[in-house]
């Protein structure tokens, strides 16, 4: 076999091994009992929120609640950076096998896996934010 083919097979095997297979289920919590978050979040707040995401069939859907700790809020750009709590993932990290997907190079995959639980979103895109702590 070609050396390049063998190297690509090894890279693909490493990527598959790095992807979480058995994520713990998100904690069950009654989000309706939490206080709504009024105004922008503060650094250190743990919040839950919904957001518009693409489903596996490429249709926009409102997500289930996600939980995350606010690690940065930029008032000028109105963007919030969150570290997702254990059991919650970003839709960007979902592996899709559709015709609109493309192969990713190794450097991009390594960079994404290092920061897979950190997301940055526009505060205006966040729906039904609630304060946990």
What's the short version?
The protein has 133 residues and is of the alpha+beta class. Helices cover 19% and strands 29% of the residues.
List keywords for this structure.
133 residues; alpha+beta; two-stranded antiparallel sheet; 2 helices; 19% helix
Class derived from helix and strand content: alpha+beta
Proportion of residues in extended strands = 25-35%
- The SSE order reads HEEEEEEHEE
Biggest β-sheet strands, sense, barrel: 6 strands, antiparallel
List the SSEs and their pairings.
Elements: H1 3-18, E1 35-36, E2 46-50, E3 52-54, E4 60-62, E5 66-74, E6 79-84, H2 106-114, E7 118-122, E8 127-131
Antiparallel strand pairs: 1-8, 2-5, 2-8, 3-4, 5-6, 6-7
């Amino acid at each position: 076999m070609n050396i390049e083919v063998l190297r690509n097979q090894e890279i693909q095997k490493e990527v598959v091994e790095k992807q979480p297979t058995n994520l713990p289920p998100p904690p069950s919590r009654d989000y309706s009992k939490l206080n709504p978050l009024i105004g922008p979040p503060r650094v250190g707040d743990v919040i839950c929120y919904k957001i518009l995401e693409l489903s596996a069939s490429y249709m926009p859907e409102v997500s289930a609640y996600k939980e995350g700790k606010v690690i940065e809020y930029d008032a000028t750009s109105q963007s919030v950076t969150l570290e997702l709590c254990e059991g919650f993932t970003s839709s960007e990290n979902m592996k899709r096998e559709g015709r609109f997907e493309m192969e990713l190079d190794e450097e991009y995959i390594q960079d994404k896996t290092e920061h897979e639980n950190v997301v940055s979103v526009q505060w205006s895109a966040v729906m039904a934010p609630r304060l946990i702590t």
